[in-house]
Structures are given as C-alpha cells and as structure tokens.
Design brief:
Blueprint (H helix, E strand, L loop, with lengths): L1 H7 L3 H4 L13 H36 L3 E6 L4 E4 L1 H7 L8 H4 L15 H8 L3 E9 L5 E13 L5 E10 L1 H33 L8 H15 L4 H11 L11 H4 L7 H7 L2 H9 L8 H7 L20 H16 L10 H10 L7 H12 L7
Antiparallel strand pairs: 1-2, 1-5, 3-4, 4-5
C-alpha cells in the first residue's frame, strides 16, 4: 500500500532540499565531501517525512469515504482495507483473498471473469459494477451491497496490478424489497384462490360444464406459450381463462343445463354473459386487462361475434387465443344438448374458419400444439 501511495504523491516538498546546492562556494575537497554527506542525510530524512505526510493525507481521504473499501492484487489478495471494512468483516482480512474474507468462500473464485466483479475489472481493464452482492460479516450476518471494482495501478508492463473494491450497504433496501415481493406473492396467491373460488361457484350451477373453464385455460395458456408470447401475456390469459364464463352466474340454471336446443330468447340470455362478467370484474384492480379479455372472448375475427361485434385487431390477442381454446374444449367435451364431438371436429371447425372467425396465427399454433407437440388436455 505504501508503494502505491508513493507513486501518487507530490514530491515538490522533497525537491526543495536541493535548492541549497546552487549556493555552494569554492571549498576544499574535504569540505566538499562533508557537505555532500550532510546533503544526502537531509534528502533521506526530508523525503521520508514528505512521503509520510503524503501517505497520511491519502489514508485520511480514503478513511473519510462512507463506504467499505479494499485494495486487492491480481491474486485477489487484500492488501489494504479501511477501518469501516475491518470492523464489519474482521481486522484479519488483510492478507486473505476477498473470496475468503468477504464472500465466505472456502476457495478462490474460478478464473472466469464473468463470475467475479474484481476478476472482470482485471481482465477488461475497466470499472465494473454489481447492483446486488450477498456477503457474510464476521458475526455471520448476511448483508447486501452495491459493489464496484476499478483498476488503480499498473505494473511496469502496463498490466493492471491493483484494483480498488468499493461496497455500499443496501441491506435495508434489499430487505424492504423482499418484504414487498413476499407481500405481492401472497396477494397474488390470495387473488388466485379468490378467482378459483368464484370459478367453482359458477360451475356448481352447471354440472355439464364443470371443469370447462380450467380446461379452456390450460389450452389457451399452452397456445400462447407455443406462440412464444411473454409470461405477462400468458398470466393474463390464465387469470381471465378460469373466470371467462363468470357472467353465466346471471343465467338461469335450467337454461345452462337444458338438454335440448336453445330458443332465440334463451340464447340471447346466454350471449349476455361476457358483458355481465365484464361488469362484475371491471371494478377489480387486476394487474392485467382481465375484464376486457372476458368481455371479448366470444368476439370473432369477421365481426360476427358478440357482444359488440368487434373484428380483427379490435379484439385483444389474449381474447382471440381464449376464444379458439374455448371452441376446442367445448366441441371436444360433452354438453347437455349433444355428446362430445371430439378433437378432430374441433380442428375441422377452427381450420375451416381460419382467418374468418378465428385468428390465423392462433389457429396454426393450436394445430401445431396438438399435432406436433402431442398436447392433450384432461
């Protein structure tokens, strides 16, 4: 550390001792050598004092920084640490590797630069930052830090020889974020349970369609995954899917379970269920547009659907996917007014009406899902 400090010091104070040499008078040989010996002694004493003051100055600056700081060599050995770091990780950390002293590892980090902030700084010869690092203190306490590593010295060949590590304590913020994250997960679980409870309530009124919403959700989620859509879109489909027929709660049970064909007035009541479901859900602050997906899942690509005769891109992609999945499940399953038509009939329906009633990309993905991926629903 002292050598590093010396290399950065201003030696103007030391140079001042040479100023007296220009005032030398003509003297004899014995007097000349005596003055030379005195001058060398003065140089040694004064230069050491200048270096001591310089080192003290830089150490005072470093100690005043409100951060945990260490200086390590290319072997990751700690050559110096400020008092703040020693108090937290132990006064014996100097001489140890940072892997051992700070990260509590039994052996040194591997040679891969990407695995170690400090190795990456040495390798790339630039400053490297990490937003979150987990460390263990001398007391065994787990803490989190923002870290940075930067080359501060080079050898005679110009290669990085010393790196300064600077760590900022973010433990309090990290723990607060974890609490928020855990709370969000709990709220999500509670919401899922509530939604599924609503779903089961609807299905208890119609024994023939019990499980329909869950199976439709499975198919729709699988289609969305096959299309390469984001997790956020798939989550939206999953949430809307399990309650997409929520509006049927307003439809008389005798109509839902009627064994024969529905008349026009009865079918008009059935067609109201997307709007009713939307009105129930619109006041709930979902993370996704669940109410809109429920509202649109019976809209069709050519505008012939209900309740608002939307067409093409006016229909949300999530609703287009849910609509195709709804048709596949409904046709492949038993209904009060007919036996199950089977998966082949369902494929014929969506294939014949691809680009007319149903989104072509969604239909292609659905066919590939079942025929190529071998997907099955239960």
């Amino acid at each position: 550390m002292k050598t590093a400090m010396m290399n950065n010091c201003d030696f103007l104070e030391v140079d001042s001792i040479f100023q007296g040499s220009s005032k030398a008078k003509h003297v004899g040989p014995s007097q000349f050598f005596e003055q030379l010996r005195q001058g060398q002694s003065e140089i040694t004493v004064d230069s050491r004092e200048a270096l001591r003051r310089c080192e003290a100055k830089y150490l005072a600056i470093l100690e005043s920084v409100d951060a945990y700081m260490t200086l390590v060599d290319s072997n990751l050995k700690i050559l110096w640490a400020n008092e703040k770091t020693k108090k937290l990780f132990g006064r014996d950390i100097v001489g140890k590797t940072c892997c051992q002293a700070i990260y509590s590892k039994k052996k040194i980090c591997d040679n891969s630069p990407s695995s170690c902030m400090t190795r990456q700084a040495f390798s790339n010869n630039r400053a490297v930052k990490r937003p979150s690092l987990k460390m263990k203190t001398k007391d065994g306490k787990i803490m989190y830090f923002e870290g940075s590593a930067k080359v501060v010295s080079r050898d005679s060949d110009g290669n990085p020889s010393l790196v300064v590590q600077v760590y900022k304590d973010i433990t309090e913020r990290k723990l607060a974020e974890e609490v928020v994250h855990d709370n969000m997960k709990q709220m999500r679980r509670n919401l899922d349970c509530t939604i599924r409870a609503i779903s089961r309530t609807v299905e208890t009124r119609d024994a023939y369609t019990a499980g329909h919403q869950n199976r439709t959700t499975e198919i729709a989620s699988a289609i969305a995954f096959e299309m390469g859509l984001s997790k956020q879109v798939i989550d939206a489909i999953r949430m809307a899917g399990v309650i997409h027929d929520l509006g049927k709660i307003s439809v008389p049970a005798e109509i839902l379970s009627k064994p024969g064909k529905l008349n026009d007035s009865e079918f008009s009541l059935i067609k109201q269920h997307p709007q009713t479901g939307y009105e129930i859900l619109e006041g709930i602050d979902f993370k996704w547009a669940v109410a809109d997906i429920v509202l649109q899942h019976h809209e069709r690509f050519d505008g012939s659907g209900y309740p608002h005769n939307l067409r093409g891109d006016q229909i949300m992609l999530e609703a287009r996917i849910l609509g195709v999945a709804d048709v596949i499940e409904a046709m492949a399953s038993h209904r009060p007014y007919r036996p199950a038509l089977g998966i082949d009939e369902a494929f014929e329906e969506i294939t014949m009406n691809k680009g007319v009633l149903y989104d072509s990309d969604v239909v292609d993905a659905a066919i590939d899902l079942f025929t190529i991926r071998g997907y099955q629903f239960h």
